[in-house]
Structure formats: C-alpha cells, structure tokens
Amino acid sequence: MKDDDWNKRATRLIKVELARADIGYEELIKRLEVIGVTESYTGIAAKINRGTFSFAFFMQCMKALNQKNIRLEG
Known about the structure:
This protein is an all-alpha fold and 74 residues long. Helix content is 66%, strand content 0%.
C-alpha cells in the first residue's frame, strides 16, 4: 500500500470518529485545549485533510473525543 493510501485511511478514520461524536473542528479545538493541546482551526483542518498527522496527535484527538477503542478498517 502506498503512503498516500495510508494518509487517506488516516483521514477517513479521524473524520469518522469526529462524525460519530457529532462535533466539528471548532469543538475539537475546545476539547483539545481542555487536555492541554493548543491547535488552530487552520492547523487542524490541514493535518486532518492531508492525513499527515502524527500518532500522538491522533491519540490526543481520541482522548478529546473520549474514545477508548478504535476500530481499524480491514
């Protein structure tokens, strides 16, 4: 699988989790701030849409979403 394919899967996964939580980037920013992570709207949008965020960022987002289990697609 090419890197670009992995990036697309990463983007899809985080967007699915945001949709399940029924929140957008603005609310995600607020929730990240609660756990001590400061991000701008532009920064979050760019990272997520490119799919080039770090695993640490992904974990921070999942913590902000109070998501304990992540299901990876096949």
